[in-house]
Amino acid sequence: MKKGFIFSSTYDNRAQTIIETVDDYYSPNETIVEEPPPEYYINIRHDISPLVPDDAKSILEVGCAAGITGNELKN
Questions:
Q1: pTM tops 0.85
Q2: What b/e sequence results for 48-62 when a residue is b if at least 16 CB atoms lie within 10 Å of its CB, and e otherwise?
Q3: pLDDT digit string (tens) for 40-51?
């Protein structure tokens, strides 16, 4: 019976250590990330323009913010 008690206690300690380690790893980051200023979303990504062929018929915008770059590519 004593052997079972030792096993149970050791298992409980290991399980508790694993839970605490995982909790520490996934706990919310307390660092406050500031929202970029509004003008951040209305910039043209000039680095993208050379990557789009002149004869492109369509462009898929993903994460396009205000769509300024896509609008520029249409022109």
A1: no
A2: eeeeeeeeeeeeeee
A3: 888 888 998 999
